[in-house]
Amino acid sequence: MVKIFDLTVAAVGLTEKQLKNLDIQYEKIYIHPNNHAEYYPGAVPITIKLIFEVPSGKILGAQAVGGPGTEKRIDVVSTVMKFEGTVFDLEELELAYAPPFGSAKDPINMAGFVASNVLRGDHPIWHWYDLKKIKRNNSLLLDVRTPEEYEVGTIEGAINISDLEIRNRIKELPRNKNIYVFCEVGFRGYIVTRSLLQKGFKEVFNLSGGYKLYKMAKATTKEIAAACGPSKEMIEEILEDKVHKNENFIIVDACGLSCPGPLNAMIKALEQVPEDKRLKIYATDIGFKSSVEVYSKLNENISLINLKKEDGKLVAILEKKNGREKVLRETLEIKKLSRKETRKARPTPLSEITVDELFNRLNSDDSPELILDVRIPQEYYGLDGHIKGARLFPLGELIKNANKLEQFKDEEIVMVCYSGARSMMAARLLVKAGFKDVRNLTGGMMLWNRKGYPVERGKF
User: Fold this and answer.
1) What is the pLDDT of residues 207-262, one digit of tens each?
2) What's domain 126-218's superfamily in CATH?
3) Residue 36: closest CA among 71, 1, 69, 74
């Protein structure tokens, strides 16, 4: 079980990945019930995956993601598994109920109902990854959501007849094709599937988890980022929810955010600090210490008053030397220049380089003279790895030992970190020290790995 911001993620038993290596016949279902009665304020969905043996219904594992009460549901499944219970047992459980805490039919009951219907043959299902096989067969995709939902987005090739129209338009459906039904979360699809089976259609299946699960499973990184909202909006939301004041400080809790989240939150918060207060920011990101040190060094109107650890968190206290001055934001914002422009007789000392350009130039006659990775050793040697040939020079060390790079003062140096924030500050440090051609890797190792470019890993 783990808490990720406001979400709880919990699991018990075997995962599907483990089961694929075992000689066990299994099936799984997905549901998205609310954590408590919908009419009571504050209800949020829990996505539950329940895995069970076929045909016995013995529960093999479960995973859940959602708000308050998610862990309680996994506890219930764990207890049933302890006594070798089945999905049929989940149907009959009597669980504590009150509108602020649950529903008359608890999410665990609902998981039992859906799984039991699958085993009894009352609810034939299909899964999102079956789509390629379905399109090759004599099949029809049927979206039973409203026309408005259909217009917003659907599975390519699906026709739309809403669940409210299906009885009047049933003659439009071919009886010589397999029909694969889906709705948003699975409930309307189940109703239509049952109706069509009772009307004599032979091969009708409902998408487990609905279009909501399909969208999540097929989403690209760009689509996920767009759904989360721009980083600026996310930082503003964090500041709104996790900022409070006392007599002396504006206090920001940036714990849990990864680079460059804490740094962006700090910059945004500094803009709002009044003259009579200081900023106190808490963070757990391993790169925040060097980030805040360099930021205060690069911005003359910001003083770093204190930097220490407190209960496992890093705590920084900062002060604006003149409350009326606008906080410098150029640390993270520079004009993007092409490499052709930077190769002029007097190259611009600070510019950016894309991961594509760097990858294409590696191992060529035009390879950069030096690649500096300014992350800490745990990141450099960790899962994200590092670019072949990149030299580890943590940002905290660079502040004190930039003179060790004196021989590269007139050469092209590419700066690398996880996202591009720390490396940009490192690049500015070198430019300030007189280096002539410093380039920041846009998107850092995050984008490098996303592109699938090769990395090296190793112990330190």
Assistant:
1) 999 999 999 999 876 666 656 555 666 666 666 777 888 888 999 888 877 777 78
2) Rhodanese-like domain (3.40.250.10)
3) 69
